Amino acid sequence: MRKKDLAEVLKIYNEGIETGMATFQTEVPSECVWDEGHHVTLRFVAEVNKRGEEMNIEQEIRQLKYQIKLLKFMVNDDEFPFFMYALDNEFDETRVNAVMKILTAFYYRLNESNDNNYHSYHELNKDDESLKTLLKTYQIDTFEIYKTELPSISEFEHYLNCIFFNKEINVKHFILNLKRQSIHKELCNYLLNQLEGH
Q1: Taking residues 52-71, what's their average pLDDT?
Q2: How far apart are alpha carbons 113 and 119 in whole angstroms?
Q3: Taking the C-alpha atoms of 127, 133, 139 and 144 in order, what is their torsion angle to the nearest 10 degrees?
Q4: pLDDT at residue 73, rounded to an integer
Q5: What's the Cα-to-Cα distance from 53 to each of 49, 62, 112, rounded to whole Å?
Q6: Please, what is the Cα angle at 179 between 158 and 197, to 5 degrees?
Q7: String of b and e for 147-171 (b: at least 16 CB within 10 Å)?
Q8: What's CA 56's distance to the chain center, in Å?
Q9: CA distance 117 to 58
């Protein structure tokens, strides 16, 4: 994005505000305020080419992949190994969200007797329609992930196969990257220990 693009960006931002769904903001900020609130290297715009034609889908995908590649150079993969793993394997947000919800349920099942507030939260979560809808996308039932027995590595592998049905997933590598990023570290150790015992 260049300085000359800012007026058009703010116009589009206003269109988003008018939908009532794109942001919690109610007014378009001044150019100065917007400029201060957005990191210079993370600003991208899609433009009509010199002949006045919009980029086709293939061009847009190539452009996005290149931009992601540039962003990855700016991020330390030692700090965010799972996110880098997700980027490298082109995981979409819905799949990653489904895995995170399953991991949270597993963590609850592993530690359910330790915290009453946590227990109440998960009892309510079992009936959450958005969770049911998300998991149903992958033919997973919410009550299945909240069963009373301890989680197992074979159960986790099953859910990964449901979610990433079109990809080869190395389960150990997947869990190690979660652990390295401190995402449910205790649960990751528990699953890795089971994996080692297989």
Answers
A1: 75
A2: 8
A3: -10
A4: 72
A5: 5, 17, 57
A6: 55
A7: eeeebebebbbebbeebbeeeeeeb
A8: 26
A9: 49
Is the distance from CB of 51 to CB of 66 less than 8 angstroms? no
Rounded to 5°, the CA angle 40-42-45 comes to 100
pLDDT above 80 for 102: yes
User: What is the Cα–Cα distance from 171 to 73, expressed in whole angstroms?
Assistant: 26
Kindly tell me if the per-residue pLDDT of 117 is higher than 80.
Answer: no
Beta strand spans in the chain (E): none
Task: Extract the tokens encoding 106.
Answer: 């597993």
What backbone torsions phi and psi does residue 115 show, to the nearest 5 degrees? -150, 115
Contact 16, 23 (CB under 8 A): yes
Average pLDDT, rounded, for the chain: 85
Residue 127 is classified by DSSP as T
Check whether 29 has a pLDDT greater than 70: yes
pTM above 0.90, yes or no: no
Instruction: Report residue 20's pLDDT band, with 50, 70 and 90 as the boundaries.
Output: confident
Q: Which of 103, 108, 69 is nearest to 174 (CA)?
A: 103
**Nearest residue to 141 (alpha-carbon basis) of 98, 191, 77:** 98
Query: Residue 157 CA to chain centroid, in angstroms?
Result: 19
Q: How far apart are CA 76 and CA 176, in angstroms?
A: 17
Transcribe 67-136 into DSSP letters: HHHHHHHHS-TTT-HHHHHHHHTT--HHHHHHHHHHHHHHHHHHHTTS-HHHHHHHHHHTT-HHHHHHHH
